[in-house]
Design brief:
The protein is an alpha/beta fold. The protein has one domain. It is about 55% helix and about 10% strand. Strand 1 and strand 2 form a beta hairpin. Helix 5 packs across helix 16.
Length: about 350
């Protein structure tokens, strides 16, 4: 990356990282990107399947080791901050498993490790965030039933919400990504973010029909004769994303567009942390790029409560019947697992015995 691109990436990184976190938490966003893929089809088709992103943590180790040490120290204090596979036990029933996923189709992500594969094979039920996204017709039906969650239904347009001083650059950045501004004028900003927050290589895989990890687990489970369950509805996920402040979404979309090709570095870093099972490092890494104080912190707090903590509480309640029956393989975004409000802690509070398998 040249010096100018690096400077842009550094300025844009903060809110963009939060937005990427939100999209990675939201299983539905991947399928939203697929539904509107035709808008940026040329970008996906022109991309090579191989990704070229650089691990930002490795770069920080080289250029700012003190910052990395601070990130690692904060991560070490995160409850249940290591591990993506957890064994769940309750007297009288077969063990269940909680598995943290990443909503990507990258082969490194989709390929299960030996322990996760064994847990999956031993389970009789596969539970993912929402089963409705496996059927695009149901996604479309949910969008049509709640148009205000994904589209501006009044006179508002996407560009009208962008500050005047940034509007020309914003529209140019959309056009550069193969997205004519007029074609998405009535779409809510987070829908566009679902497209532009994925690197070209991931879009190319999606265009070729490659499933994200969660969808692959569901398909494999059905093929193996396992029962299939979900913890949320499309309306739940749409509503959660749409409830965040509009300013948060607009700023995040603008900054993500500014990242340009550097988006591949952000995604590569998230993948590396995931493969290393360092779930407790995600938030410290995100926060390291944020300016202290100001409106950004308020937006981040709203995001964390809406997209993480509140959804975790819902998921814990809805997972309980599957766990009480035993033999469940519950797969949700890995960012839902760590912390005092994470699923591991919440399920322990409900009386389940949980330990990481590493």
């Amino acid at each position: 990356m040249n010096a100018r691109a690096t400077a842009i990436a550094e300025r844009a990184a903060g809110l963009s990282l939060k937005l990427l976190a939100a999209l990675n938490l939201l299983f539905l966003a991947v399928f939203m990107a697929t539904l509107v893929l035709s808008v940026s089809q040329a970008r996906a088709q022109d991309a090579a399947v191989a990704c070229t992103g650089e691990n930002m943590m490795a770069r920080m180790e080289r250029d700012d080791p003190a910052a990395v040490a601070a990130i690692r120290a904060e991560a070490a204090r995160v409850e249940n901050g290591r591990g993506v596979l957890w064994r769940i036990e309750k007297d009288g029933v077969s063990p269940s498993y909680l598995f943290g996923t990443m909503h990507m189709s990258d082969p490194r992500v989709v390929r299960l490790g030996a322990d996760a594969q064994a847990a999956f094979d031993a389970s009789s039920t596969v539970v993912i965030e929402t089963t409705e996204v496996l059927d695009q017709a149901r996604v479309m039906a949910a969008m049509l039933a709640n148009p205000e969650l994904t589209m501006f239904t009044d006179g508002t347009t996407l560009s009208s919400l962008v500050p005047q001083a940034e509007r020309a650059a914003f529209e140019a950045a959309l056009s550069a990504r193969g997205i004519p501004p007029a074609s998405v004028a009535k779409m809510k900003p987070w829908v566009i973010s679902a497209m532009v927050a994925l690197p070209a290589c991931e879009m190319a895989r999606k265009a070729g029909g490659a499933p994200v990890l969660d969808a692959q687990l569901a398909r494999d489970g059905v093929a193996a004769g396992k029962a299939l369950g979900g913890l949320e509805t499309i309306a739940d996920q749409l509503g959660a994303m749409a409830s965040l402040p509009m300013e948060f979404h607009i700023r995040g979309l603008i900054d993500t567009l500014k990242l340009g090709d550097a988006i591949e570095d952000v995604i590569e870093t998230m993948i590396v942390l995931y493969l290393e099972e360092e779930t407790g490092m995600f938030w410290p890494f995100f926060r390291a790029a944020l300016p202290a104080g100001g409106e950004g912190d308020a937006g981040f707090s709203a995001f964390e409560e809406t997209m993480v903590s509140a959804r975790n509480r819902t998921m814990a309640e809805r997972a309980a019947p599957f766990l009480d029956a035993g033999g469940a393989f519950v797969a949700v975004g890995a960012l839902h697992l760590p912390g005092p409000q994470g699923l591991v802690s919440l399920l322990r509070e409900k009386g389940y015995r949980i330990e990481a398998i590493r």
